[in-house]
Design brief:
The chain has helices spanning 16-28, 39-45, 65-74, 90-98, 111-142, 147-157, 162-169, 173-187, 192-203; strands at 8-12, 32-36, 52-57, 81-85, 103-106. The protein has 204 residues and is of the alpha/beta class. Helix 3 links the parallel strand 3 and strand 4 (81-85).
Length: 204
Amino acid sequence: MEQQSEPTVFLVDDDPAMLRMLAKVTESLGLAASPYRSAEEFLAAYRPIGPACLVLDVRMPGMSGLELQRQLAAAGGALPVIFITAHADVRMAVEAMQQGAVAFLEKPFGVQELCDKIQAALRLAQDHWLRRQQRRRAREQLALLTPAESRVLHLLVGGLTNPMIAKELGLSVRTVEVHRGRIVKKLKRKSRIDLLRLVEQAAS
């Protein structure tokens, strides 16, 4: 089971002085800073163990910031990215934002502006993390059902009554009632609305 950690701000920049400044700003907000000198170093160490965001330089030796963003997106990551760069252009900024970047800051940028963007990114990360945890728990609960119970549940949340479910599945009404009782006991949810909410969380 995943354990939630305190929010983390990952920092990736090949400039040691910039990396130290970013870490200092992050820690001034009472947040954990995790600095890396390259995209490759970050990828080798990164594990999604809690809400986090990424402050990322665009141009670095080896893998660029945009390439790292694409890799994270392809892997299904929901890590909010704040880009920083001394060499901005419109095409680069558009691509970054289209890929879901939270912000695109040009060096030199204001400390308060960076703080605001980090806090906004972490609010987004908290929402993503909560939904991810809810989805995982919902799927774990639904995995407790037998195939027959899962079929009954699918029809139940679709609004069918016990007699209608029995007819649809070729079962007796009594058998449907038994399945429904087991569903309620395993999932600890009685109402159709609560069951529907659980199914929706698992699919989100």
